[in-house]
Design goal:
The structure is a homodimer of 197-residue chains. Chain A has one domain (2-181). Helix content of chain A is 64%, strand content 11%. Chain A has helices at 2-38, 68-93, 101-134, 149-178; strands at residues 41-51, 54-63. In chain A, strands 1-2 form a two-stranded antiparallel sheet. In chain A, a hairpin with a 2-residue loop joins β1 (41-51) and β2 (54-63). In chain A, α3 packs antiparallel against α4. The radius of gyration of chain A is 23 Å and the shape is elongated. The A-B interface holds A 62-63, 66-69, 72, 101-102, 104-105, 108-109, 112-113, 115-117, 119-124, 126-128, 130-132, 136, 138-142, 144, 166, 170, 173-174, 177-178, 180-181 and B 62-63, 66-69, 72, 101-102, 104-105, 108-109, 112-113, 115-117, 119-124, 126-128, 130-132, 136, 138-142, 144, 166, 170, 173-174, 177-178, 180-181.
Chain lengths: 197, 197
């Protein structure tokens, strides 16, 4: 009897570490997405005309906050990073507090809300980036990535990080929902995994 | 003892009906969003130039599949409608099958995946519609809703239905996650709510 409980404690300790690892990965993915997109800016000078033989130059800047979908992207990734940071702190330092049904339930619902948010932001930005890359001939919207290549490359990097965050958050959300069915007590890493009597 | 179990059966019967009602609402919201956007098309003729005094006319058509975000919107709303239809059928006709932990867990995870999908599609389409309505002066993308007002109105209607679907799916997902903590047996409406012994 004691042996099976020992194995339960061992596996639940291991699954908590995996969940903690996933949260750390998700935190770094969404935080880097928010930072890379938030700092994404490129300034370029183009020749826009000629007066006689003298070319007329104009300077243009591409910045993330020129596109509402990218502003939403930065805000949402920052919020989800904060959520994961909170959950990580809860798991590491919240060891003494009992992981009761209600606590697990709120973590599961919060995770679901955050995966909904990050998936909305990543997809809105992705479809907007697609228009920036390919344009839309029906709406006569020209592509911009032929003139602002660095800006688009950085944007693509932020999108990849954000979609990695979406996948990680889907796994984390499914895991925290599953924990409700077998509520193994996610012991904190500081407290030694107590053998369940 | 029997009285408290009777009240449990009564409340669980009621909560199942509410969940069923929410699913029916979500189903109609996402289905109408998919249909309205899928059929969204407007053809107009504009004067695009003059040769001498004779105006040159050209006919333009705005269709949902001219925009990848709207194609994603129609597909995602159709998928979430199908998911809800399946869950409704399961709840109505699946009465005899025991709602065990695993069944409730898979319903909760499926609901989470579907709210993630519908939120991605609704937000991607919303930000694209915003560009259609207001244009983007930085990218020099002109708005199109001044010329295709009906097309944009129908698109707005589909978006409102889809966001209603997102809110309903958030509530449904939270409810199906909460059911894992108090797994009241969601009895089917056909079988009379059996009194839990």
């Amino acid at each position: 009897m004691a042996v099976s409980k020992l194995t339960l404690a061992a596996t639940s300790g291991k699954s908590c570490k995996i969940l903690l690892g996933l949260r750390l990965l998700a935190f770094s993915a969404t935080l880097s997405a928010a930072i890379v997109m938030g700092l994404n800016k490129e300034t370029k000078t183009f020749i826009v005309g000629k007066v006689g033989n003298t070319p007329i130059q104009a300077t243009f800047t591409a910045k993330f906050d020129h596109t509402p979908a990218f502003v939403f992207f930065v805000v949402a990734n920052a919020m989800v990073s904060f959520h994961n940071l909170l959950m990580i702190a809860l798991q590491i330092f919240g060891g003494k507090m009992e992981f009761t049904g209600f606590r697990l339930l709120s973590v599961a619902i919060l995770d679901m809300l955050n995966v909904t948010l990050i998936s909305a932001a990543a997809n809105a930005a992705a479809f907007m980036a697609e228009v920036g890359k390919n344009g839309n001939k029906h709406a006569r919207w020209d592509k911009i990535c032929d003139r602002f290549a660095t800006y688009c490359d950085h944007g693509a990097g932020a999108l990849i990080a954000a979609f990695a965050g979406v996948i990680l958050m889907l796994i984390i959300s499914a895991a925290s929902i599953s924990r409700l069915v077998q509520p193994n007590k996610c012991c904190s890493t500081t407290a030694s995994p107590s053998v369940v009597p």
